[in-house]
Amino acid sequence: MPPTSESADKVTIHFKPQDRQTRVPAGSTLFNAANWIGLAIDSTCGGMGTCGKCRVRILGGDPAITQADRKVFSADELAAGWRLSCRAEVLTDLTCEVPRLMGNPKAAIMGFGKHIILNPNVHKVFLKLPPAVLEDQRSDYERVRAALDDAGFEVVAGLAVRRRLPKTLRNADWNVTAVVVGQQLVAVEPGDTSKRSFGVSFDIGTTTVVGLLINLANGSPLSAKSALNGQAIYGADVIARISHTMLNADGLQQLSDRILRTLNDVLARLLAEAQVAPEEIYEVVVAGNATMTHLLLGFDPEAIGVEPFIPVAEDMFSVRAAELGLTVHPEAPVVVLPHIGAYVGADLVAGILATGIQQKPGVRLLVDVGTNGEIILGSAARTLATAAPAGPAFEGARIQDGMRAADGAIEVVKLDADGVHLQVIGDVPPIGLCGSGLLDIVAQLRLTGLLDASGQMLSPEAAAAQVPPRLAERVTLTAEGVKSFLLASAEQSGSGRPIQITQRDIRELQFAKGAIAGGIAVLMNVLAITAADLQEIYLAGSFGSYINPQSARVIGLVPPVPVERIKAVGNSAGEGARIALVSFRERSIAQAIPANVEYLELSGRADFNDAFIEVLAFPPLEALAVPAA
Amino acid sequence: MPPTSESADKVTIHFKPQDRQTRVPAGSTLFNAANWIGLAIDSTCGGMGTCGKCRVRILGGDPAITQADRKVFSADELAAGWRLSCRAEVLTDLTCEVPRLMGNPKAAIMGFGKHIILNPNVHKVFLKLPPAVLEDQRSDYERVRAALDDAGFEVVAGLAVRRRLPKTLRNADWNVTAVVVGQQLVAVEPGDTSKRSFGVSFDIGTTTVVGLLINLANGSPLSAKSALNGQAIYGADVIARISHTMLNADGLQQLSDRILRTLNDVLARLLAEAQVAPEEIYEVVVAGNATMTHLLLGFDPEAIGVEPFIPVAEDMFSVRAAELGLTVHPEAPVVVLPHIGAYVGADLVAGILATGIQQKPGVRLLVDVGTNGEIILGSAARTLATAAPAGPAFEGARIQDGMRAADGAIEVVKLDADGVHLQVIGDVPPIGLCGSGLLDIVAQLRLTGLLDASGQMLSPEAAAAQVPPRLAERVTLTAEGVKSFLLASAEQSGSGRPIQITQRDIRELQFAKGAIAGGIAVLMNVLAITAADLQEIYLAGSFGSYINPQSARVIGLVPPVPVERIKAVGNSAGEGARIALVSFRERSIAQAIPANVEYLELSGRADFNDAFIEVLAFPPLEALAVPAA
């Protein structure tokens, strides 16, 4: 088997002087890799390689010099390692230097190559107010309001900001900075603080919470932190969490407290790293699935968990940070992005925003692979959404040697005549298979002929007859007589036990991928399109981003498009939240997304059951145009 | 001296079956008297005596039968005591029966004969929602929102109402009543509660707080309660209260807590009497002077107390009851009416609303007599406002035998050849003089010739020569040689000490009335009008309403207009608050009043000082066309 050009390899990139590190699929651009971890690289051209602003200097590793590089850099510069990060594809581990941001870019590349005009909802306006005198007895608030009106801002103000006005104005000798968020006068600060304006975007995953602290003056992230969702002790998935609220009188309160604490923990670390005070965070944007945002807002999620699956509310919703208990400016709006349905939540709305599916003419597919596979299919003309009940196989559950993507997890598997080649997370021996590794091994078994289209593994005898001996020798029967394939022996394994994939594991994966592929098939039928019509397939989410696109194709998780059309888009939910934070225009687009998406409920749909059965099997290798073993 | 037709007498009216009692100036209509204490009498015609709805039955006392009565009632009915309350002038003590309100009048007479169309800001809408099913997976909130949209209400909803939605909708089997206040969805209640909708209006006086609980379905008051402002222990007037906040670190908090407690006490009694739950009060409207509303809202009033006299805010302002701590529905808006200036507050805005000064073509004068005399002068064309520093004389302070209007206070004084005739509050011997009694005795001394125009009292000798002996014998010199007039001897007095009015008291009153009359003169000069141009003079406030209009004229507190043009308008601030509660249209008018009123600051105005000196003396009796003694 020759290595395919769409390598399954992960590469490590080290950014300096920020000293940040990330692992991305080989072939990602440096610019996107930086973006995904919230590291700002200057840019105004929209990633077209023309503005010449996204320059980085390669310190170790050697990406090819591109045509765009030759236009922008001198021979000396090229020799010194300068490259345009939006063009530089990373094929091997690499270290590079990112210059500090110069000036205030008024636009930036975010999401999946989207060109975002910066217009945050937060405005800071320095005001030199005329002091109060007998000839000008306007009230404190009217004085501020009128000055803001002159500056083009129409505002209203609540109790808290009014209460602080008299002392602030007089102590600051009438020189103050007004903080306007939308139409709300959120604060009046002494002196000129107009240069310091910050916001935070959150992606609340069932497992992981990611927060970005953004400098709203230029849209650049100053810090990115993540944490495990503190609700995990009450259950791994949304159904377990919902059950907890149903079975315990104070369950809702416990889960709400937990997620709030997690957000505040992440906030504390963001603020500490960026040297920003809580009161300087004037707006927060939140993406997450409906259950997560319900629990954050203290909404009872019970009706999400049982038929007919009804959320409390789906609209974009803003609440004062103080009312929620988030430790930012107490008057800061916390904006929760809207939902499409109980199981297609704000995380997918953010993903649609970040990928721009609804702004493009061709049909695109966005799949967030997880316990629920959320599927978006559409274009500027029409968009459909659904959620497919994949079950926990992708998360490593119900798989004999399954595990989460953590140190010791096999994340990449390749088989060839020499045997098995593994990539393991962390510098440790393997202890189990995470989701991307599971997909890889099943796809590789299929490509080597060890699995037939129905998912049957060859018997040890048949394997010996049909595949190279270094592979065949790994096919055995377990004590219960179940066929299995050995990935690592007890000696190679970090746990002292062998790591295997069994026929049963393969069946689990077939059910999981069948649900998602079935959902995709239903949506494609409704739109009356075929795989040939699909311009791009975006794999999103903490798991989806790590799937080898080739493996996804081979097992039939996604339709059989040319592999270069399948793209990992990283944490598109977090990216969408960030876009909605830095651009009010984009936030308005996000607000309108649910109204422009048709949600299809798969439960009880006969065509879904039919499609599910049809796609349980693996696609014929001929259809994929990949070389069989 | 013949009794004048504009009798200074107070009469007592007893309303049944409500068992409510009030004392009003003789000549008031029964309808207005009921209105001033918040007792609802049906009416739709605007008090013109034509709708025939405001019928009451006289049980004791005998008001004359009017032309309007003859048109509406049969001879039998007239004989049985039926009268139209809007026509029935009360000249003697009287008991009458008020029929219970029939149906829902959509208009009512409020304020000073204003015809108010009822359109409260609170709407209750019963909704039979389609249950959630797989074919209709709209969220709970969207289901309610869409149904309200169909019913013509565009709403937004906050955290609290959303949190309660899932349980309420399902427990109530999808039959619920939405409470919409303005554009805010304030509550969703199980079942059909659309018939129960209530609001409360408050007038927060420095001394007294008055609350009305209004049935918003028909605008009628269900209960009226008052209480002493609990801040009184920190000082009697606004300056003392402001000083308390400046001298004590927790002074603002103490005063805020006190007024909140007072309001909650009044609320508790209103709710108990009307058998209404706190959660059924969906809106509160507050009038009061700027210092009182500042303290309620927790605004530092310091800048109100010192030059240049600046409030924190003057606009109409709404805050959630929960944020303030008022024990009504936690999401109910508490609407504080706007202010015109630091010393012409929401109480005067409410008074302008209730009297309709700005809706009428002729020029009218509204005076709220107190420590500060607030003065409004104008018409639909142009309105001016100011506050005159009258000092505490009208409240009985700095007057040797002065006291507040409480049991034992002399409230009415008449002098004639037979001597002194007193009316005393309560069924007790006199113990002092309240403001209205003070004005009466000074006016009567002036009319009898015992005071000259400059305010000099006759010496005992001159008195003996010029006035009837029963009056002259009461003029003496005090131990310090100050001239004084005896109102009640030690034997007649309830305190065992004689009650006198001294030359010094008269000087205090001259200063107090001079400030107000001077303020009025400045405003009249600015408008370039004379007394002949004044259509009406309204005396407002807890004190102003009890002034004998004739006395006010005689001492020159108000310009020398024919006495029938001087009208007591009761608690016009409370009445304005009530109007703003039951009519959103009227509230919008109130909101716009400050922008349509020019505030004149008297401090440091040379023309005010000139006017003050000019009006210190009493007007010549010839100018008043009243018979001298």
Could you characterize what this model shows?
Two copies of one chain form a homodimer. The first copy, chain A, has 629 residues and is α/β, with parallel strands linked by helices. Helices cover 31% and strands 25% of the residues of chain A. Chain A has 21 helices and 29 strands. In chain A, the strands form seven sheets. A six-stranded mixed beta sheet of chain A has the order 14-13-12-15-17-16, sandwiched between helices. A six-stranded mixed beta sheet of chain A has the order 28-27-18-19-20-29, sandwiched between helices. In chain A, a hairpin with a 4-residue loop joins strand 13 (208-215) and strand 14 (220-228). The longest helix of chain A is centred in the C-terminal third of the chain and has 25 residues, at 503-527. Chain A binds chain B through residues 132-134, 136-142, 157-159, 162-163, 165-167, 170, 297-300, 302-303, 307-315, 317, 319, 323-324, 339, 341-342, 599, 601, 603-604, and chain B through 132-134, 136-142, 157-159, 162-163, 165-167, 170, 297-300, 302-303, 307-315, 317, 319, 323-324, 339, 341-342, 599, 601, 603-604.
- Name the CATH architecture of one domain in chain A: 2-Layer Sandwich
Q: Give the biggest sheet of chain A.
A: 6 strands, mixed
CATH topology label of one domain in chain A:
Nucleotidyltransferase, domain 5
| Percent of residues in helices of chain A | 25-40%
Number of strands of chain A: 29
Low-confidence stretches of chain A: 1-7
Distance between the termini of chain A: 6 Å
Give the number of helices of chain A.
Answer: 21
Oligomer: homodimer
Using a beta-carbon cutoff below 8 angstroms, give the protein chain pair with the largest interface and the number of residues from each chain: A-B, 45 and 45 residues
Strand order in the sheet with the most strands of chain A: 14-13-12-15-17-16
Question: Strand fraction band of chain A?
Answer: 25-35%
Shape of chain A, please? Answer: globular
Mean pLDDT of chain A: 90
- What is the radius of gyration of chain A computed over CA atoms, rounded to a whole number of angstroms? 26 Å
The assigned structural class of chain A equals alpha/beta
> What's the level 1 CATH class of one domain in chain A?
Alpha Beta
